[in-house]
Amino acid sequence: MDERIRFITHNGKQILLTDFSNYSAREVEKIARAVPEHVTVQPRGPVLLLVDFTKASFDEEAMRAMKESAVFDKPYIKKSAWVGAENLPSVFVRTLKEFSHREFPTFKNRDSLLSSLHCGDTSRFRPRADLFLGACLRKMRFAKFRHKFCPQLRSSFLQDLSETP
Length: 165
Description:
Blueprint: E1 5-10, E2 13-19, H1 25-39, E3 47-52, H2 60-73, E4 77-83, H3 90-100, E5 106-107, H4 110-118, H5 133-144, H6 151-163
Parallel strand pairs: 2-3, 3-4, 4-5
Antiparallel strand pairs: 1-2
Helix pairs in contact: 1-2, 2-3
């Protein structure tokens, strides 16, 4: 399994390659569950992740494992991109993006992805502003504390927000 999750170097950049290509749904699930073990030993933030789904198979358990890994790895991932994701159900892709608050740009093959990294084209990797966790949490907190049953919590929460930079 270690050969399916490994770091590769491209033009001086370390990229974590997660290779699901030609794997069954059960094997995809195993690898997806193993990814956090490789990512979380890295410092938070700088990991570049390339995931290859070419001719891979999926079932509900494999997709659940991928969702869990995507959320768990988020603090460690700077950029991620997918190759061969045409066979992923669009409903799953949309759900994964919403669930993990991450973007997953797709490319036709590894070469096109690596050449875009080499050229410095990171526009496809830039996350949307509304997906930043802080922005989402602020909106959620205000909505959550407007309820009548917690006026004391709401006032202390607003005070805490005004003190944070």
